[in-house]
Write a structure and sequence with these properties.
The complex is a heterodimer of chains A (about 140) and B (about 110). Chain A has about 140 residues and is of the alpha+beta class. Chain A has a single domain, classed as 2-Layer Sandwich (Heat Shock Protein 90). Chain A contains 4 helices and 5 strands. In chain A, strand 2 and strand 3 form a beta hairpin. The longest helix of chain A has 22 residues. Chain B has a single domain, classed as Transcription Regulator spoIIAA (2-Layer Sandwich), CATH 3.30.750.24. In chain B, strands 1-2-4-6-7 form a 5-stranded mixed sheet. A two-stranded parallel ribbon of chain B has the order 3-5. In chain B, helix 1 runs parallel beside helix 2. The radius of gyration of chain B is 12 Å and the shape is globular. The chains are: A alpha+beta (about 140), B alpha/beta (about 110). At the A-B interface, helix 1, helix 2 and helix 4 of A face helix 1, helix 2 and helix 3 of B.
C-alpha cells in the first residue's frame, strides 16, 4: 500500500472552524469519486472529532487543531484529528454511547459512536495534559459511480 | 436559521442550514424562546432545509424533547433527509421523537 496523496491543515480550535474542517475534508475526498452518502459520512465524522477537540480538549481555551488526511492506492482515506488539549483520562468511558462529561451543555454523548458507525475504523489515543489523537479510516468503492 | 408558525398549541419551526456545535447554541436559544409559552404542547421541527446535522443536533432535540415532556407535550420532526435520519436512528431518538417523512399538513390542524 502506498500513499498517493496527503494533506495537513492546522487551525484555531474555535467553533467557526467546525464547518471549515468539514468543507476541507469533503474537498480532499472528491478525488475518490465518493457517493453523496460517503461524503456525508466523512463530514459528520470529522465534525464530531473537531467538535470534541474544541469542547473537551480545549474547553473554551485557545488551542490548535490539526486535521490531516491521506489517500492510498487501495482507495482508503485515513483522517486524523489532533489536539494538544487536556486529554481524556478514561477513554473507555468517554467512548460509551451517551456518556458525556458535559451534560449541562446538552451534549448527546454520541460523538465517538457516530465516528465509529460512519467510518470503517476508529482509533483514539489520549494522554492527560498532552492531548488527543483520533485516527479514522474509510474504504471507498473503486467502481465508477 | 429558523422560521416559525404557531397554530393554537402547536409551534411549527422550519430549520435551515447546518446544525453543528457552532450553530447549536443559537438554535437552542431561539427554539426555547419559541416554546416559552407553556400552552405550546407540540413542537414540530421541519428539517427540509437542513443540509447537515451531527450529534450536536441530537443534543438540541433531546433538550427540547425534555422541555415538552415536562409539560406533557411532544416533539416531532418532519422531512428529515436520509443522511440526517441515520444520526437520528443511531442515537435512538426515533423511539421518543416522532419522525414524519412527508409532513404535509403536520402542525396545521
Amino acid at each position: 500500500m502506498s500513499i498517493i496523496n496527503q494533506m495537513r491543515l492546522e487551525f484555531m480550535g474555535c467553533p467557526q472552524n467546525e464547518s471549515f474542517a468539514r468543507v476541507v475534508i469533503s474537498a480532499f475526498a472528491v478525488q475518490l469519486n465518493p457517493t453523496i452518502e460517503e461524503v456525508s459520512d466523512i463530514k459528520t465524522a470529522v465534525s464530531e472529532a473537531v467538535t470534541n477537540a474544541i469542547i473537551h480538549g480545549y474547553e473554551g481555551a485557545q488551542g490548535t487543531v490539526v486535521l490531516s488526511a491521506t489517500i492510498n492506492d487501495q482507495h482508503i482515506l485515513t483522517v486524523e484529528v489532533e489536539d494538544r488539549g487536556r486529554g481524556i483520562a478514561d477513554l473507555e468511558q468517554a467512548m460509551q454511547p451517551f456518556y458525556t462529561s458535559h451534560p449541562e451543555l446538552e451534549r448527546s454523548g454520541m460523538g465517538f459512536a457516530v465516528m465509529q458507525s460512519f467510518m470503517d475504523g476508529l482509533e483514539v489515543t489520549s494522554t492527560v495534559g498532552e492531548g488527543t489523537h483520533i485516527r479514522m479510516r474509510k474504504h471507498f468503492a473503486r467502481d465508477e459511480k | 436559521m429558523l422560521e416559525h408558525a404557531r397554530q393554537r398549541d402547536t409551534m411549527l419551526v422550519r430549520i435551515r442550514g447546518e446544525l453543528d456545535h457552532h450553530s447549536a447554541e443559537q438554535v437552542r436559544t431561539e427554539l426555547d424562546e419559541l416554546i416559552a409559552d407553556e400552552r405550546i404542547t407540540h413542537l414540530v421541527i421541519d428539517m427540509q432545509g437542513l443540509t447537515f446535522m451531527d450529534s450536536s443536533g441530537i443534543g438540541v432535540l433531546i433538550g427540547r424533547y425534555r422541555t415538552l415532556a415536562r409539560r406533557k407535550g411532544k416533539l416531532s420532526v418532519q422531512n428529515m433527509s436520509p443522511l440526517i435520519e441515520r444520526i437520528f436512528q443511531l442515537s435512538g431518538l426515533h423511539q421518543i421523537i416522532q419522525n414524519h417523512r412527508s409532513g404535509a399538513g403536520e402542525g396545521r390542524r
